[in-house]
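Re: Re: C-alpha cell formats

Sure, here are both.
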Amino acid sequence: MFASRTTTLRDKKSTTPESAVVPRVTRLRATRSNAAAATAAAQRLQRIVSWTLFPATLSAALAAALFVIHRRLALEWITLAIPFAILAWVAIMERAMPYERSWNRSRGDLRADVSSLLIVAGGLESAIGIVYPGIAATAYSHLVASGLERSAFPSHWPLLLQAALLVLLADLGKYWFHRFGHETDLGWRLHSVHHSVKRVYWLNGFRLHPLYHLINFIVAILPWVCLGAQPQAVALYTVILAISAAYQHANIDMRHGVLNYVFNTNELHRWHHSRQLAESNANYGAVILLWDLLFGTYRRPNRGHPVELGMADEATYPMNSYLKQLLVPFRWQRMIGRIARQAPPDGLAS
C-alpha cells in the first residue's frame, strides 16, 4: 500500500508540471502574438494618418467654413475659431506622432514663442481685422465711382474659386516678399526673427517681426481686398493659410508624396530653417509651391531634415528674447554687428 501511494505521489510530481507548462507556453505565445498584431495594427494606422492628416484637416476645415457661411454665422468662427482649433489639434498630434521627439522639449525658447504669438496673432492680427475692412471699402468705392469694379477682382465667381484665386495671387506677393527677406540685407533685418529657432514646432510659426507681418499683409492680401474680394472668400483663404502655416511647422511624422509639389509642407519647410544657405534659400511659398517651381527656388533634399537649424552667427543674435528681436531691424549694427548675409562663414545661413 505504501509503495502504491509513493508511486502515485511520484506520478503526480512528474505529470502535474508537464500538464501546467503546456498551457503557460500557449498563453505566452498567444500574448506575444496579440502584442505583435497590436503593434503592427498601430503602425499601419500611423502610416495611414501620416499620409492623410493634412488633406483630411484641410477638407474638414473648409467644410466647416462653408457651413458657417451657409448658415450666415459670424465670420469670426472662420477667421478665429477654426485656426485656433487647428493649432490645438496640431499641438496634440505632435505629442502623439512626433517627427523628432527632442523638438517637443523647450530649449529656452518657449517665452519668446508665446510672446510673439500674443503680439503678432493676438495684437497685430486683431488690429488688422479692425482697420482693413474700412480701407478696403473706401478703395472699392473709388473703383465703383470710376466704373472699374467690373475689371477688378472677380467677386461674382463661386466662393471656392475666389479663395483658390486668392491663394495664387496672395502667394505671389508673399513669395517675392519672403525672397526679399532672405536675399537682401534690408529684408533679412526684418525676416531674421523667424529663423532664430533651433527647432520647428506648432508654436514658433508665429516667431515673426510685427513689421514684417504687416508689410506682408499689405503686399500680398490687401490689394485684392481693395479690388473687391468678398469677405467670405477672404475668410476661406484665411483658413487655407492657417492650415498651411500650422502644418509647415508641425513636428508631426507626416508623408505628403505628390502634395510636396503643390503645398509647402513640413517635409519641405524644415529645410527652409537649415543653417545652410543652399538649403534655406528655397521654398518661399506661403501655401503653394507654384511660384517656387516657376522661378527655380524649389528644393527637396533626399535626407529627412537638416543637420542643424538656426542661423550662422547666433552668438550675437538674441535668439530667445523676442523683445530684443523687436529692436533688431532698427539697431542692427549695434546689436548684431557686421554679419555678412550673402556670404556667411562656412556657407551657413545667417
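Second one below.
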Amino acid sequence: MRAVRGLTAAAVASRRLAGALLVSLLAFLLALAAPAAHAGAQKEEDLADSVRGALAAAIADDRPLRPVFASGGERLAYLKWLGEMSARLASRIPEPQVRVELIEVAYYEAKRAGLEPALVLGLIQVESNFRKYAISSAGARGLMQVMPFWVRTIGDSDARKLFHLQSNLRYGCTILRYYLDREQGDLYLALGRYNGSRGRAEYPNAVLAAWKRWQYSEATVTVAGDPEIAPSRPRAPVAEPPARNPFSSQRVAANPS
C-alpha cells in the first residue's frame, strides 16, 4: 500500500514538473514570437555638473499634468487630435483607457520638452511598438527604450520607474531634448545619438517615417510641418512660444488654477 502511495506521489510530482516545464517553454516561444524592441541604445558619457543638474531638474519637475488652453477653439483642437490619435493607435492598444492615457502623457511630456507629440509617438513606435515593458538586447527599457544608467545619472537610481508610463516618457523626452540641443537642432544626428548609432541613416529614417504616421494637420496645438517637403536632414521642431504652448512655465504661472 505504501509503495502504491509512493508511486502516486511520484507521479503527481512528475506531472507538476512537466507542467512547469511546458509553461516555461510556452513563455519562451511567446518571447521569441513577440516583436523585438529596437536594439540600439544611448551611450553613457560624462556630463558636466551643470548639464547633469539641469537634466535632473527636468526629470524632477512636478508641474501638474494638465494643459492650459488659451481658448475654447484650442481645447477643441486638442480633443479632436486626441480622438484621432486614439483611433490610429487602437490596433496596437485595444483598451481605450490605456490608449488615451498613453497619448495624453505623450502629449504632455513632448510639449514640456519642446518636442512635437507626433515625433514622440513615432519614436515610441520604432523603439518599442508601444509595448510598455519592452526590453531590448542592449538593456534599454520601456516605451521609449531608456537605458538604466540614466536613472542613476540624473534620477533617483530606481530603474523600475522605466516601466512606469510617465517616468519613461519623462526620461525619453528629456534625453531627446538634450541630444537635440547638443546637436544644435539637427534632428537626424540627435536621433542617431538617441539610438547609439550617430551618423547612420537607418534609425533616423525609421523614426522620420513613423513620425509622418502620427502627424495631424488640424490640431493647432501641434507644430507639424509638411512631411512631404521635409529635408533629408531636418532641423528639430521649434518649441512653441508661451502663447501657443499649453505647458509653458509662463502660461502655467499665469493660470494657477
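The chain has two domains: 1-33, 38-254. The radius of gyration is 22 Å.
- S.
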